[in-house]
């Protein structure tokens, strides 16, 4: 390693000046690789680690890593390969600092030849997919089952892209959005694992800030999460992608950004709702959002926010269903843009995975169709209620006001649609 490029006390005053501290360093022509090591003296501090090359965003580790390597043809997960000469910048996210400050040291080597270990592959695991349920759909459409929120080793997840793809198949999913934090290093690798496991992997990036998170969907290039959320929406739209507000009522990640119009989608059902399926905070957020211009086109989606095995749930908890012409990233996102979505319990923490047997509520030919929901209650956005007394019940599309949901006799949410 070269001598430290940064060795100083960082305080709340630094955070107030700029939450993203940029530390410049030079990479000479012909450099074989860049290697960075961050040392933070106090474990109570949370310092995120990212990097900008002269002509592009190189990647983001957040607080999941304290070091990374970038070589011409390979890089640590979370970062893009390629070593160009010129002025680079480390980007230190000053997420959490103790009152007394914290001593931080950064070392940079531009002569690194360190090798990057290949991401592990997972065994193939054929399984029944959600689309095998053959849920009634419009002409030329199929309802595909998926999950719009998951992480890999390219941010703070514990599994490789290939391992996550295998897990999606085992969970009965047709598609999965891979949404690592503030990076697109995983996008170029999705195709190989998708083909190997015969599952559709959607490119996503979770725009992660101290005032809330959103996900940009689509192969649209990196979106600068340091800009205001209004910029996110305009830029993502300009590039042909979709923006979803993530877990809007979740702890210290709740949505506090300002928008003057509604996003393309809302992660209404996040895994955190399973802590109390009678909670009404997600509905309260929706009632605020629906007053924004464009909310009539906002699709409702769900996400497991999966990071690691052993957490008590797996992918598809909850499951989002999208009616699409085919199961490709483009067609799935087109289905979301058209509002053809529904959300179900999916794989519950306390049950054997059964994506083909959970209650569903969806739109079909303009009506509401409740499936496998006998004994549930249909509820509209104004609280009007109607009992479901059979496993397949069709309700006129002009009954009540959406969004609608099914709940069980003790008011736990079972399924949602607009």
From TrEMBL:
Q: Which residues lie in coiled coils? A: none
Extract the GO molecular function terms from the UniProt entry: 5'-3' DNA exonuclease activity; 5'-3' RNA exonuclease activity
* UniProt-listed Pfam families: PHP
Q: SUPFAM superfamilies recorded for this chain? A: PHP domain-like
Using the record's annotation, list all stretches that form the Polymerase/histidinol phosphatase N-terminal domain.
146-211
Which PANTHER family would you find in this protein's record? Answer: EXONUCLEASE, POLYMERASE_HISTIDINOL PHOSPHATASE N-TERMINAL DOMAIN-CONTAINING PROTEIN
Record protein name field: CehA/McbA family metallohydrolase
């Amino acid at each position: 390693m070269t001598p430290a490029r940064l060795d100083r006390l960082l305080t709340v005053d630094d955070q107030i000046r700029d939450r993203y501290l940029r530390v410049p360093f030079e990479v000479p022509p012909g450099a074989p690789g860049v290697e960075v090591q961050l040392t933070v003296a106090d474990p109570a501090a949370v310092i995120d680690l990212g990097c900008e090359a002269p002509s592009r965003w190189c990647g983001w580790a957040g607080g999941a890593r304290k070091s990374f390597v970038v070589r011409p043809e390979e890089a640590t997960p979370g970062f893009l390969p390629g070593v160009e000469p010129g002025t680079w910048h480390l980007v230190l996210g000053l997420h959490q600092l103790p009152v007394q400050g914290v001593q931080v040291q950064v070392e940079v080597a531009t002569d690194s030849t360190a090798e990057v270990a290949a991401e592990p592959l997972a065994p193939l695991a054929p399984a029944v997919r959600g689309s095998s349920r053959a849920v009634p759909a419009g002409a030329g459409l199929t309802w595909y089952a998926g999950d719009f929120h998951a992480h890999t080793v390219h941010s703070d997840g514990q599994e490789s892209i290939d391992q996550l793809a295998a897990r999606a198949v085992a969970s009965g999913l047709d598609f999965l959005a891979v949404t690592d934090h503030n990076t697109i290093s995983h996008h170029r690798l999705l195709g190989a694992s998708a083909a190997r496991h015969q599952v559709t992997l959607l490119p996503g990036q979770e725009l992660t800030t101290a005032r809330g998170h959103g996900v940009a969907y689509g192969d649209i290039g990196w979106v600068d999460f340091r800009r205001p959320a209004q910029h996110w929406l305009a830029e993502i739209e300009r590039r042909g992608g979709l923006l979803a507000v993530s877990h809007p009522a979740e702890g210290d990640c709740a949505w506090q950004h300002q928008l003057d119009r509604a996003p393309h989608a809302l992660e209404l059902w996040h895994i955190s709702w399973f802590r109390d399926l009678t909670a009404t905070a997600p509905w309260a957020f929706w009632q605020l959002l629906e007053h924004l211009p464009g909310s009539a086109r906002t699709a409702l989606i769900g996400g497991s926010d999966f990071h690691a095995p052993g957490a008590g749930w797996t992918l598809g908890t909850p499951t989002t269903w999208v009616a699409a012409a085919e199961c490709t990233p483009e067609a799935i996102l087109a289905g979301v843009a058209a509002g053809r979505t529904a959300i179900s319990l999916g794989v519950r923490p306390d049950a054997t995975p059964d994506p083909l047997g959970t209650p569903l509520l969806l739109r079909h030919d303009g009506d509401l169709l409740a499936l496998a929901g006998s004994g549930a209650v249909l509820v509209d956005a104004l609280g009007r209620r109607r009992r479901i007394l059979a496993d397949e019940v069709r309700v006129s599309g002009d009954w009540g006001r959406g969004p609608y949901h099914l709940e069980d006799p003790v008011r736990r949410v079972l399924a949602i649609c607009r």
